[in-house]
Design brief:
Number of strands: 8
Oligomer: single chain
Number of domains: 1
CATH superfamily: Hypothetical Protein Pfu-838710-001
CATH topology: Hypothetical Protein Pfu-838710-001
Largest sheet: 8 strands, antiparallel, barrel
Strand content: over 45%
Helix content: 10-25%
Radius of gyration: 16 Å
CATH architecture: Beta Barrel
Structural class: alpha+beta
Distance between the termini: 35 Å
Order of helices and strands: EHEEEEHEEEHH
Number of helices: 4
């Protein structure tokens, strides 16, 4: 199983503001709908529909993750639209939607996620090792490090969204 090593930061500005200020260079933008099929404190299974905002191209994925915090095991693969629709409909859930702006800061790939149903924007940076993640010095505009704060995890945000419906 592949390891996902990432740090997340709470932003107080929207991606377009950061791009306009020159703090961040945009590469791509995707609209993501994600729905969890099963989850507990240590594991999650989700499906995603990803739409490229520039080209309209659509991709569907199925993901299994295990663990919490900065380093987790992850398996992700593409699925067909038909399988996605079947799993999504069977869940009966409200999808978590976000706009992901992927770009670069100081030669590093950064993903800025703006959650549509919430007033929440986060920055994510993935790393090849825990040592690299721990030694990373973020720019001031990244804000608070929320990598280990479960209340900002996608599955917690999604679960809260389900409780609102």
């Amino acid at each position: 199983m592949a390891m996902e090593i990432e740090r997340k930061f709470l932003l107080d500005r929207k991606p377009d503001e950061l791009i306009a200020e020159g703090a961040f260079t945009r590469r791509t933008r995707q609209v993501i709908e994600q729905t969890y099929l099963a989850l507990d404190e240590q594991q999650e299974i989700r499906v995603r529909r990803l739409v490229d905002a520039d080209t309209g191209a659509v991709e569907y994925t199925h993901t299994f993750k295990q663990g919490n915090g900065m380093s987790r095991e992850e398996v992700e693969y593409s699925i067909t639209e038909s399988i996605y629709e079947q799993l999504f409909r069977a869940s009966g859930a409200v999808p978590l939607t976000k706009t992901r702006t992927t770009g670069e800061w100081n030669g590093i790939t950064v993903e800025l996620d703006r959650y549509d149903q919430l007033n929440l924007t986060v920055a994510e940076v993935e790393f090849d090792s825990l040592e690299e993640a721990e030694s990373f010095v973020p720019p001031e505009w990244f804000g608070e490090d929320i990598s280990s704060k479960r209340e900002y995890s996608n599955k917690k945000v999604w679960r809260d969204l389900q409780n609102r419906k």
